Amino acid sequence: MLLDVKLPKLDGLEVLRRIRAHGGCRSLPVIMLTTSNEQRDVIESYRLGANSFVRKPVAFSDFVETARILGIYWLLLNEASPAEEDR
């Protein structure tokens, strides 16, 4: 899941907190993809169980490249948890 810290109604940190509280979603990979430059957002994201924190580029072409690289990493390079493979 790609999750932004800065959401309009419920911030992404609260969404992450709720995801991790739900039994079936505890092992769901969550990447915080956000424009936030706040160190406290990085710290809190990892404390709440984020798997990665990536600063979102402002320029669209840079964003597309970042998304491509993230896709390659999570789909081709990352090794899934054995618990996830059993589902």
Strand tally is: 3
CATH superfamily: Response regulator
Strand order of the largest sheet: 1-2-3
Low-confidence runs (pLDDT<50, min 5 residues)?
Answer: none
Number of helices: 4
Give a verbal description of the structure:
Helix 2 (39-47) links the parallel strand 2 (31-34) and strand 3. The chain is globular. The longest helix has 18 residues, at 60-77. The model has no long low-confidence stretch (mean pLDDT 90). With 87 residues, the chain is mainly α. The protein starts with a strand and ends with a helix. The chain has helices at 12-21, 39-47, 60-77, 82-85; strands at residues 2-3, 31-34, 52-55. The protein has a single domain (2-81), classed as Response regulator (Rossmann fold, 3-Layer(aba) Sandwich). It has a three-stranded parallel sheet with strand order 1-2-3. The protein has four helices and three strands.
Short description:
With 87 residues, the chain is mainly α.
Topology:
Elements lengths: L1 E2 L8 H10 L9 E4 L4 H9 L4 E4 L4 H18 L4 H4 L2
Parallel strand pairs: 1-2, 2-3
What attributes does this structure have?
single chain, 87 residues, mainly alpha, Rossmann fold, 3-stranded parallel β-sheet, 47% helix, globular
